[in-house]
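Hi there, hope your week has been kind to you so far. No rush at all, and the record is pasted right below.
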Amino acid sequence: MIDASSKRAARILLAPMEGLLDCVLRDVLTRVGGVDRCVSEFIRVSGTLLPKRAFVRVMPELLNGGRTFAGVPVRGQLLGSDVVCLAENAARLAELGSPGVDLNFGCPAKVVNRHGGGAMLLQDPELIGRIVSAVRRAVPSHVPVSAKMRLGFNDDTRAEECALAIADAGASELVIHARTKAHGYKPPAYWERISDVRAVVKIPIVANGEIWSVDDALRCRALSGCNDIMVGRGMVADPGLAWAIRGATADALLPVREASWDVLRPLIRDFWKQVSARVERKHRAGRLKQWLNFLRRRYAEAEAAYGELRTINDPMLIDAWLAIDARSAYPVDADLAALEAR
């Protein structure tokens, strides 16, 4: 079966990742470029119609027409298992201006699964179908409804059944993370199983999981049969990955841009500025170090920066370090030592 997406240019989507790829990183990474669409981290739905502030807290892009400041659309994602409540909140999300509604059937977190959400639902394809159908009916016809799933919970034996339930219930697109809940994030990703699912499902499928490099993206496309891919941790580690993938494929529509460290330095400072405004003081340093730890995979300068900041938790010291960095080249550890001694 030919994927409908093969008739148009391939797309690169930016994945949602709870506790990592939030609105701040969406803003920064989409300013680097190469991404066609983002998905928000999940908005947890549990027994009530959420107020506007609950949606905006996770997806502040709703205040900007459902787009990042770089103009990339963000589709809000809902997580839960209550059919009626999910439908009501989907309608609210659409009213608030989300460019689409995405449903989470893949989160592997124990606290989520314990309450019957995320990947736990992959054990009940009938319930998945009822959720998607109810959301589709609740949302205006011009607003797309999509879903993200894993290959299964403990194993992948019901992958096709779950995907068919999603498609038959009216979803217009399905992202498949090519691992089960039991696999977690351990490599490898089983991209070839996405090809099996594509053989029985008629809606466009987007392949996701373990795409860290251009070679990974090309192999994922070849084994899954999908033109469209979703990247997550790979782009957190290498913000230029989407451009690099485009540059390596015939479907590149835009000029490739180099995401050098000099390009990233001001974005890291802006990342810190946004984190400082949104995150509780005691957790701010951890957020910066979390990103630098990923960037170490790609940039020697990030390795140096991480080493200098690894034991620093005082936001004022990090402010000072970034101010020094803005005026100088690496390393700046001598200046940082002087600051700590004050």
